[in-house]
Amino acid sequence: MPDMTDNSPGNSRTPVTVLGLGPMGQALAAAFLAAGHPTTVWNRTPGKAAGLTGAVVAASAAEAVAASPLVVVCVIDYDATDAILDSAADELTGRTVVNLTADTPERARRTAEWAAAHGIDYLDGAIMTPTVTIGGPDAVFLYSGPRSLYDDHSPTLAALGGTATHLGEDPGRAAAHDVALLGIFWTAMTGIMHAFALAKAENIAAADLAGFARGISDLLSPSLDALAANVDSGNHPGTFSNVTSAAASLEHIIHASERNGLDAAVLKAAHALARQAIEDGHGGDDYSRLADTLRTHATR
Ligand code: NDP
């Protein structure tokens, strides 16, 4: 077990600064401490470092940055990130920022440009797993930006645990994966909440539905590779099911929801997309066609 209070000069591990001590920032700082890295932390609102035994708490972002060659940022969004980095721009010059805040690919690219203009090495990243995984084998991190920078710092970032993947030099690539993947998560979560609301309206306890719901959710994961192959090839053979059939199924859910007075907006959006594919002449295709339908009707 490493010495969690080892901020002494004899500690050869790379000093790390963590800016942002929300639940995720705290988990990241705790993992660095557990791996024996001298760790300096800062948070806009004081008092968030109470559980981080051994961390040095800085009075400002600039003071925190000055303590380490590697600065990890994890706050709510890039408006916050940019404001924090801007406040410490002078101290950041010549250091490396690893930004593990979630936001859009475009914001990631903009922050990378800002960093380059200020002589700051910049790696963007996304965390795909919850706080409890950080430091353990189940954590998943995605990175993008200069490969050499990733190689230089991956031994230190290894303290965060799990698996890390460098996705390419485009700094927006990690965030692009993040938004696409979180789209799956949040639409699925919303679908689950709609299912529970509809079940309750039909006098079915959510707990009674949950076992069957698990069966439905288990259907999704094994179908991902085949769906992706269809989307990449542009071929959507509707051999086992098709968009017309899916649209009819969606209608049943919408009718049942509205009969119970429930807002069916989420399902209506899915139904409208299926209807568009049918109007385009693709009713006989697999549901994977909808990815093409979205792109065909994209406004830019
Ligand atoms: P939040 O997303 O709620 O972020 C809270 C942090 O952002 C706090 O440090 C807060 O400071 C700071 N902050 C908010 N607004 C500002 C501002 N204007 N200026 C400076 N700091 C600001 O909590 P998390 O820690 O959970 O998430 C951090 C990032 O990690 C997010 O991008 C999130 O999407 C991502 N993430 C989180 C996961 C999780 O399980 N929690 C999982 C995967 C990714 P203050 O205390 O002063 O308000």
From TrEMBL:
* Family under the similarity heading: Belongs to the HIBADH-related family.
This protein is called what? NAD(P)-binding domain-containing protein
The species this protein belongs to is: Kribbella lupini
Signal sequence, renumbered to the chain: none
Concerning SUPFAM superfamilies, the annotation shows: 6-phosphogluconate dehydrogenase C-terminal domain-like, NAD(P)-binding Rossmann-fold domains
Name the PANTHER family for this protein: CYTOKINE-LIKE NUCLEAR FACTOR N-PAC, OXIDOREDUCTASE GLYR1-RELATED
NADPH-dependent reductive aminase-like C-terminal domain residues are 170-295
What highest taxon heads this organism's lineage?
A: Bacteria
Classification of source organism? Bacteria, Bacillati, Actinomycetota, Actinomycetes, Propionibacteriales
Q: Which UniProt keywords apply?
A: Oxidoreductase
Query: InterPro entries annotated for this entry?
Result: 6-PGluconate_DH-like_C_sf, 6PGD_dom2, 6PGDH_NADP-bd, HIBADH-related, HIBADH-related_NP60_sf, NAD(P)-bd_dom_sf, RedAm-like_C
Domain 6-phosphogluconate dehydrogenase NADP-binding, by residue range, is 16-168
